[in-house]
Design brief:
CATH topology of one domain: Rossmann fold
Order of helices and strands: EHEHHHEHEHEEEHEH
Strand order of the largest sheet: 2-3-1-4-8
CATH architecture of one domain: 3-Layer(aba) Sandwich
CATH superfamily of one domain: P-loop containing nucleotide triphosphate hydrolases
Number of strands: 8
CATH class of one domain: Alpha Beta
Number of helices: 8
Shape: globular
Structural class: alpha/beta
Largest sheet: 5 strands, parallel
Strand content: 15-25%
Length: 227
């Protein structure tokens, strides 16, 4: 069975879930409660590019072409990030691993540090609700605040409550794009979910309802998460 409590210094968690299930909201709450860094693959790669590290310089050329950064390059960047002092007390990974190959890579990175994962949190929401969430989502171009045309409307149509910036729909929140994103996610991640299930690490959580309700479902199964 997988470990359900922190070992060797803090909680080491992976957050899985299709686009639109609310991973970002839950990641922010977990970070707030525990103090562990939320490590997003995209943010990590952008930081490596900005810092100009050798792997970051290679990643920049690939990202500028619009291509996916290969595991051979993501691996060293992830290893360097997890070796930083703030990750010594645990971490929450979001967006990595995405495939079984990346899960194997993460295992090797952690094994070299004498570490292992505590839990893999898989947030699930029925596909029709995901499509509704994403097609109705509106983002502030200035500050990044998120709204929804039905469930979280701004006070003034098309205007951000927080900063007054213009609200827009992301290009990849069109219904056809969402369907393709969900197809790719299921194709890549279903084997990953099965892998962590076999390892006894997987915690599957219903992502429907209010964010605080979803968090309580997660926290009730992970000792120490309430911080």
């Amino acid at each position: 069975m997988g470990r359900t409590a922190a070992h060797g210094g803090g909680l080491r968690l992976v957050l899985l879930g299709a686009p639109g299930v609310g991973k970002g909201t839950q990641a922010a709450e977990i970070q707030r409660r525990t103090g562990v860094p939320h490590i997003s693959t995209g943010a990590m790669l952008r930081a490596a590019v900005k810092e100009g590290t050798p792997p970051g310089q290679k990643a920049r050329a690939i990202m500028e072409r619009g291509a996916l950064v290969p595991d051979a390059l993501v691996g060293p960047i992830m290893a360097e990030r997890l070796a930083r002092p703030d990750a010594g007390g645990g971490f929450l990974l979001d967006g990595f691993p995405r495939t079984v190959g990346q899960a194997d890579l993460l295992d090797r990175i952690l094994a070299e540090r004498g570490q292992g994962l505590d839990r893999v949190i898989n947030v699930v929401v029925p596909e029709p609700e995901i499509i509704d969430r994403l097609t109705g989502r509106r983002l502030c171009a200035a500050c990044g605040a998120t709204f929804h045309v039905r469930s979280n409307r701004p006070r003034a149509e098309g205007v951000c409550d927080a900063c007054g910036g213009a609200l827009r729909r992301r290009d990849d929140d069109a219904e056809a794009a969402i369907a393709e994103r969900l197809r790719i996610y299921q194709e890549q991640t279903a084997p990953l979910v099965a892998r962590y299930q076999r390892a006894g690490l997987l915690l599957t959580v219903d992502g429907r309802g209010r964010p605080d309700e979803v968090f309580e479902r997660i926290a009730s199964s992970i000792p120490g998460l309430r911080g």
